[in-house]
Write a structure and sequence with these properties.
About 40% of the residues lie in helices and about 15% in strands. It is an alpha/beta fold and about 650 residues long. It folds into 4 domains: about 210 residues, Response regulator (Rossmann fold, 3-Layer(aba) Sandwich); about 180 residues, Rossmann fold; about 90 residues, D-Maltodextrin-Binding Protein, domain 2, CATH 3.40.190; about 50 residues, no CATH class.
Length: about 650
């Protein structure tokens, strides 16, 4: 009986111990779950709008990277009290659509910040709404220099300004010595914004912009062809292309169709197009073989490799239609923009998040009903002061826009772009970024890797050609009898071919050859049908004034009445009477003047007789005269001394003892 009682008591104690042990195990879990629930209940929602084009490639890229950025950020910062809540809107590729979406977010959702819109034209409208509501507008794809935080204080460009690349483009042009370049750009805010900066950069290196080709985004194929045929008639063969991806996909196939992708042409695409090369159709890439481009340099990192792998995996799971495109800089900028906003939101998380709505009367427009964010100024300053290392590199905002100064130079070959070098503001064109000993700016082509130019040429194009339909300059030359060293016109009677020669012609030909571009011209003699002169020099000058000639070359004297009709070059020879006289040197200053009385042959003959005389004396005297005996050097010295001393004094008779 006792054993049964003890067994029952032992079983109860065992169950109690197990229950107590289980309670200890569950206690941390209960505390953790309870803490998490409390944390979720204490987090502050921070509404952020996203305005992008859902059907464009950049819009899809942003929509795929922004949620991943939000998930990654709060996985790494789970203890943060604020949580960004995204509200996406489709701008439908339209300026009005973007403004309408932003207005809806500001009025009905009361977002504290807006990521987007996508294009510079859309951003131009939305920025005014942001200023009115004091809500930061953070765009990672509106790169036009026409947008500035100086004009719109609540605009934050989480991307590079297009004007930052013009120095790199001018460095390429300077490296190859091209003296003319034609920009080809679309007629939008994005296309027009960079052209003044590009023109100024070319002016600094003495490169002319003879023409600007503007193409509308809605241009038909026939209009694009008409513009290309116009460019073909010019002598310039260096073209800078700055346009959107959609227009580029129609433009370059037409370039190849008309034969402007042959040898001798130079095509340089800007950063926006180069970053989108991996998203273009293979047929478009095939029409761009040999094109040069520059794109933003993205430093490699483990975080970037990890994100790229996860991004590709997500696309494969979702079966998206731009899986093959690959991740580019716009997706990285979108990712970093979310991190910057999340960090800034946490800094001001303790502030009351609210909108101050204005008092409006009936029949008030939606614009008048927009409230003002109470934390907008603080949020703006917090974003501008945010510094961190993102996927695209260092996130550092200066004057409201991202700062990144290194560009990668590429050459379109095969199915993609091959790196040929880099450009930095400090060192210029370099082959490697970490090259030692680089302490000065250089634009040497030796720092670039081998380039395959259009037409599969390995020789750098000279940048210009003589156009087949170009107009030749008509250069008038005088016809005269007599002095013909300056200008001489001769006609072959058998072939009737006129030849113009002379000093003035040589000077003019040399000047035209020294020009950095081709100028076709021909000499037209100022003569009648019989070959005789058609008039005086005054008549020739007046024909230039009448535009029968484009210029005149010859020994034309610059006088006052002729200067009233034409402009003269600076004179390269003096006019008037001249005299040619021989120049005689003053020989009295010559140290060898004493040699002048005798000729060279006479001096040589005299010297030979002196030596002969000394030899004869030696033959006669050395047997009996001790002065002519001794070592060989002494005897030779005596011979020459005796011969040359006779010039100044007479010697006494030599005698010997009997």
């Amino acid at each position: 009986m006792k054993s049964k009682v003890e067994s029952s008591w032992s079983l109860k104690m065992k169950n109690s111990a197990q229950l107590l042990f289980s309670s200890f195990l569950l206690l941390p879990l209960i505390l953790f779950l309870g803490g998490s629930v409390m944390a979720q209940n204490t987090t502050v929602s921070f509404n952020v709008g996203v305005v992008l084009d859902f059907d464009t490639w950049v819009g899809k890229m942003g929509l795929s990277c922004i949620p991943m950025a939000l998930s990654d950020f709060y996985a790494a910062h789970s203890f943060y009290k604020t949580r960004l809540v995204l509200h996406t809107r489709d701008s439908k590729k339209d300026v009005v659509g973007a403004a309408s979406a932003a207005l809806d977010l500001l009025k009905n959702v009361e977002v504290q910040a807006i990521i987007g819109p996508e294009t510079s034209a859309q951003a131009n409208f939305v920025l005014d709404l942001g200023d009115k509501a004091q809500v930061p507008i953070v765009s990672f794809s509106a790169t036009s220099p026409s947008l500035s935080s100086k004009q719109n204080s609540y605009f934050i460009r989480a991307a590079q300004n297009d004007s930052s690349q013009v120095k790199a483009i001018s460095a390429i042009v300077q490296a190859f010595g091209w003296r003319e370049a034609v920009p080809i750009y679309e007629d939008t805010d994005y296309g027009n914004g960079v052209i003044p900066y590009l023109t100024d950069a070319f002016q600094e290196i003495d490169t002319r912009v003879p023409y600007r080709s503007v193409i509308s985004p809605s241009a038909t194929d026939d209009e694009i062809l008409a513009e290309l045929y116009k460019l073909m008639t010019m002598q310039t063969r260096v073209f800078i292309v700055h346009m959107s991806r959609s227009l580029c996909s129609r433009f370059f196939p037409k370039v190849k169709e008309v034969g402007m992708m042959d040898e001798g042409y130079v095509w340089i695409i800007t950063d926006g197009l180069t970053n989108l090369l991996n998203s273009m159709d293979p047929t478009v890439i095939d029409s761009m073989q040999g094109v040069l481009g520059l794109r933003t340099y993205v430093p490699k990192s483990k975080d970037l490799d990890n994100f790229t792998a996860r991004w590709r995996k997500k696309l494969q799971q979702n079966n998206t239609d731009f899986e093959r495109s690959g991740l580019n800089i716009f997706g990285l900028w979108a990712y970093d923009s979310v991190w910057a906003l999340a960090k800034a939101a946490e800094k001001i998380g303790g502030t009351t998040i609210s909108f101050q709505n204005p008092e409006v009367a009936e029949n008030t427009t939606d614009l008048a009903a927009i409230g003002v964010s109470q934390i907008g100024p603080k949020l703006l300053q917090a974003v501008l002061r945010t510094r961190f290392r993102g996927l695209s590199g260092e996130f550092n905002l200066l004057h409201g826009q991202l700062q990144s100064t290194v560009f990668q130079l590429v050459n379109v070959i095969g199915n993609g772009a091959r790196e040929i070098g880099f450009w930095t503001p400090l060192n210029g064109i370099v082959r490697e970024l970490n090259a030692n000993g680089m302490n000065k700016y250089t634009t040497s082509i030796s720092n670039l890797r081998a380039i395959i130019w259009p037409g599969e040429s390995t020789t750098a194009p000279k940048g210009w050609v003589i156009p087949t339909s170009g107009k030749k300059l008509r250069i008038g030359v005088p016809v005269k009898d007599g002095f013909s060293e300056f200008v001489k016109v001769t006609r072959d009677p058998s072939t009737n071919v006129t030849t113009v020669t002379g000093y003035c012609i040589d000077v003019f030909d040399a000047v035209m050859k020294a020009l950095p571009y081709a100028v076709p011209y021909e000499y037209i003699p100022f003569a009648n049908s019989d070959g005789k002169s058609a008039g005086t020099y005054n008549d020739l000058v007046y024909q230039v004034f009448l535009q029968n000639y484009d210029a005149a070359v010859g020994d034309t004297t610059i006088i006052a009445n002729r200067s009233q009709y034409v402009d003269f070059t600076l004179p390269y020879t003096e006019s008037g009477v001249s005299m040619i006289v021989p120049v005689k040197d003053d020989e009295r200053k010559n140290a060898w003047i004493f040699l002048k009385p005798l000729s060279r042959n006479l001096w040589l003959t005299s010297g030979a007789f002196f030596i002969y005389t000394g030899f004869v004396i030696w033959v006669l005297e050395h047997r009996i005269n001790d002065d002519f005996r001794g070592p060989l050097g002494h005897q030779l010295g005596t011979i020459f001394w005796f011969s040359f001393s006779t010039l100044v004094f007479a010697h006494s008779n030599f005698s010997s003892p009997l």
